[in-house]
Amino acid sequence: MKTKVQFLYHEPETENSFPDIFAYFPEENYDHNGTLKTSYSHIGQHSACNPDYAKECRQATRKEYTDLETELIILGYDLEVINQRLEYLRTELRNECISYGKLSELYGLAEYIDPNDMELLEAAGVPEH
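Now predict its structure.
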């Protein structure tokens, strides 16, 4: 069974800090009550992630997360990368060849769409704020 993962990027907080690129597992609880989700980064490896923190982040680009994805695959993960699926659905939408099944899939992925991505949010039926 594939593990859903979203690769995220958090801007550095200071000039002397580095960006935080990490894998966020939205369906993997870190604690017993499901408040925190599991995340993974090169440094620190598996740790807890508050879903609110994940929402503050943007989707990492393929170039930004490739090394981390490779590391997870080496560890034995069979990944379903949400970032890649959203970009595939965007292409289908732009080419005007998206099926009802794929639109339904996009609706199901709405919670993972970047809040500034009006194109996908609109297609997923998310109302404007």
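The chain has two domains: 3-81, 82-123.
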